[in-house]
Amino acid sequence: MTFAKQVSGAAALAAVLLLDLAASSAQAGYVETLTEQGGNVVATGSGTFDLTALAFYSHNVASQPFLTPNNALLGIGTTILSDDAYTGVSAPAQFGSGPGTNASSGSGDAVAIVGIFTEIGLLVPAGYTSDTPLMSGAVWDNASFMSLGVTPGTYEWTWGSGADADSFTLEVPVPEPSSLALLVLPLGFLMLLAALYHRAMPQHLRAQHNRAKKRIARNLEYERAAGAICLRDGPADTAARARPSRSRRIGQGRLGYMSPDTGGAAL
């Protein structure tokens, strides 16, 4: 079952990546989207980069999928040791308050925004050339935006100007409420309305309402006590107390039961 679930999740991620790649073909830059899915956080990214305005820094740089919201750093794709690094990126201050958290798994092209000494750098697959389509994915198991410290919103890392301008965009949509929350919220609202109605009820109506509740509770107690006496085996005085009235005996069929052993005589 676990293997089947993993295969199904991988197939769904691949389908989303293909859709992202098709959608991004009509737009510039690279877009990564974070979503909450089935108790996990899933990242999908696709698009292209124009490296013209960036400065080459180094070959063979390690890259892995991760999130560091409080420093506005992130990576997506397969863990590798051979990325190319470029500097010259302008970054937002942060996209949340969470510290660094590595992903549980990654797939596709390795892409990352990292800190290189005092600068912000972009990591791309080794030998990458501008405007080549990229497609990446990552999953953080048993996680949420809250646990990772991610704040919903749209964040951009930019470089260059004019025809050489390009960007890495992170989109974090507000999570949809769970079905349980959709059920609990209306129930809580109804309970609040009931409490407000009871508080706003005139004093004499509230007193009548309370008396009716006490009367119902008292009747229930009487019925439970009577049932306990009737079912208890005890002395003759207890049986006398438990003996039903004549009208109750008639209602139970005491005078109307026809026995085949007595020829139909009443018992």
Please sum up the structure shown.
The chain has helices at residues 2-24, 145-148, 179-200, 203-231, 236-242, 246-251; strands spanning 30-37, 40-47, 55-63, 66-68, 73-76, 80-87, 101-102, 105-108, 111-116, 119-124, 134-140, 153-159, 166-172.
Report on the structure:
The protein has 267 residues and is α+β, with helices and mostly antiparallel strands. The protein has helices at residues 2-24, 145-148, 179-200, 203-231, 236-242, 246-251, and strands spanning 30-37, 40-47, 55-63, 66-68, 73-76, 80-87, 101-102, 105-108, 111-116, 119-124, 134-140, 153-159, 166-172. The strands form two sheets. The chain has a seven-stranded antiparallel beta sheet, with no helix packed on it. Strands 8-11-2-1-13-12 form a six-stranded mixed beta sheet, covered by helices on one side. It is built from six helices and 13 strands. The longest helix is centred in the C-terminal third of the chain and has 29 residues, at 203-231. The chain folds into two domains: 2-172, no CATH class; 179-249, no CATH class.
